[in-house]
Amino acid sequence: MIDAERKFREYLSEKGLRFTSERLAILLHVMSLHEHFAVDDLHHQLRQKGLSISHATVFRTLALLIDCGIVQKLPCEKMPARYEHIFGHLHHDHMFCLRCGRIIEFHNAPIERWQQKVAEEHRFQMTGHHLIIRGYCEKCH
Q: Average pLDDT of 92-109?
């Protein structure tokens, strides 16, 4: 946790922004989550903990956490976007069920190698990617 906090503090300092108690509370809560979450869910959970943090502050802080590489936003069709903390985790991709919204994480080494090969063939310096496979989970198809 300390590394994520240090990274966030350094990022905010570089941008000339303050490291507030609200931003710390949001960071700590996000890092404690082990599932994908929506902004509204995060805001509700923080309020249940007795924190009076505005929805706008949660939304803006998530944007900062994304920019500094601690959180990732997953675009979800027909549903609010989902987020997850990625700091300290190995890269993985996602399958998204269009009916129930279930998100399945996976890692596939051949897909990773293929993407790198395609980038090299095009003389493209890849710095990252997001692969989302959309469809229907076993329960919904």
A: 89
